[in-house]
Amino acid sequence: MFDLDRWNEIFETIRKNKLRTFLTGLSVASGIFILVVLLGIGEGMRNGIAREFEQDASNLIFVWPGVTSKEYKGLNPGRRIQMKNEDYNQLLLLFGDRIDKTAGTFQNWGMVLTYGKENGSYDVRGSFPAYQELENISLTSGRFIDLNDLKNSEKTMVIGHRVKLDLFKDEDPIGKMVQVSGVNFKVVGVYTDPGGEREESRVVIPITTAQKAFGGGTNVDRLYITLKPEDSFDASVAASTQFSKELDEFLKSRHTIAPDDNSAIHINNTLENAKRFFTLMDMIRLFFWGVGICTIIAGVVGVSNIMLIIVKERTREIGIRKALGAQPLSIIAMILHESIFVTAIAGFLGLIFSLALLEFVGPLIETQYIYNPTVNFTVAINTVVILVLAGAIAGFFPAWRAARIKPIIALRDE
Q1: Phi and psi at residue 192, in whole multiples of 5°?
Q2: How does this protein sit in the membrane (predicted)?
């Protein structure tokens, strides 16, 4: 029930103690502000990490060979390992039931591409049609290399957006002929990549063509693999980890490498990396929650202390009220109303300022590991509700103390 007299009393108390009320509200508002901003930064860090992993397929495993560091079965250390087409074929035979998509690449760095009077040096990768999905490539025009290109060793190429701008400017490159170190290739597609300009400064051609045209023989430089999806993220990580272990053993066996030689075969598992990063992000967010909650608790304690001071100042008034027949519950309600009012107003002001900051400043923050810092509005509102409840609890103890004051003692108070 709305009690105008009680609200007048609250506003009169606030008017008499403007600075005290302002500082109390500021401590509460700053608590909410800090908590919401920290949660927004935590979400921005999570978005930034997720964006980094979007550059490739989310469950990608890629493999590249290195140099042996240990003697094994009479073979000296220092051997450079070279994977072959047969490794790729045997991989499909042995693990085909678990593999979703896979591709091998034969890479040529710094090859000169020429179109008309324009030329430039770019990374040319021979690969399979599945490379498009494995590298999360999006076509802006034309098509990607296909099985027919692979089977017939066609001289076709898909160029990155940066290559298109360098060589063709505003001209449509589809169907045009480009020389790659003197060999003519037909442009069949243009792509973009979430990885940005570095990834878009590359050219993709059929691996069979790359091996024949550029002296690759049957060499394969890298393997890209994704596994069939599991029921949960943890199950996917477990399956991916087990597969990486078996793949390592398979390649070391084929190339006569010591089982404990970790420099000869390198396997990067993005799911394992993602789990480590997301686990770290969860710990950081938990830390942010802890800092924010501690700040809010400090504000609530301040509210409780102020309410104790108010009770002390109004002891004679409370004694007169009780002497005139005021019930303990009415005394408690009087103190609680002021406590909840100050806490709620300060909490919502802190929430509004923090959400405004994230709304207007957040989109301007775009570092490598922080992107689009936001906070779930429901979480923010629930935080304020919890704060108001905490304010009620903070005001209850001073109110309870006020309700227990005996009128005769209160009237003697100076």
Answers
A1: -120, 160
A2: Multi-pass membrane protein
Taking residues 319-338, what's their average pLDDT?
70
The values of phi and psi at residue 73, to 5°, are 50, 45
Question: What pLDDT, on a 0 to 100 scale, did the predictor assign at position 1?
Answer: 47
**Helices (H), ranges, 169-256:** 207-213, 233-254
What confidence tens digit (pLDDT) does each residue in 123-160 have?
Answer: 999 999 999 988 888 999 999 999 999 999 999 999 99
The C-alpha atoms of residue 145 and residue 351 are separated, in whole angstroms, by 52
In 143-285, beta strands by DSSP E:
156-160, 177-180, 183-192, 202-206, 219-220, 222-227, 265-269
* Stronger pLDDT, 264 or 33, i.e. the higher one: 264
Residues 6 or more apart in contact with residue 87 via CB below 8 angstroms: 220, 223, 251, 254
CA–CA separation, 377 vs 320, rounded Å? 46
pLDDT above 90 for 192: yes
DSSP structural state of residue 80:
B
CB 301 within 8 A of CB 309: no
**Gap between the Cα atoms of 107 and 122, Å rounded:** 11
What's the CA gap between 36 and 66, in Å, rounded?
47
**Cβ-proximal residues to 1 (8 Å cutoff; 6+ apart), any chain:** none
Number of helices and strands (H, E) in the chain?
Answer: 13, 12
Closest CA to 197 of 225, 166, 240: 166
As beta bridge partners, residue 196 has none
For residues 294 and 199, which has the higher predicted lDDT (pLDDT)? 199
Q: What b/e readout covers 215-235, taking b as 16+ CB neighbours within 10 angstroms?
A: ebeebbbbbbbbbeeeeeeee
Q: CA 261 to CA 73: how far, in whole Å?
A: 13
pLDDT band at 57 (very low <50, low <70, confident <90, very high): very low
Contact 214, 155 (CB under 8 A): no
Amino acid at 221: D
Cβ burial of 182 (10 Å; 0-12, 13-18, 19+) is exposed
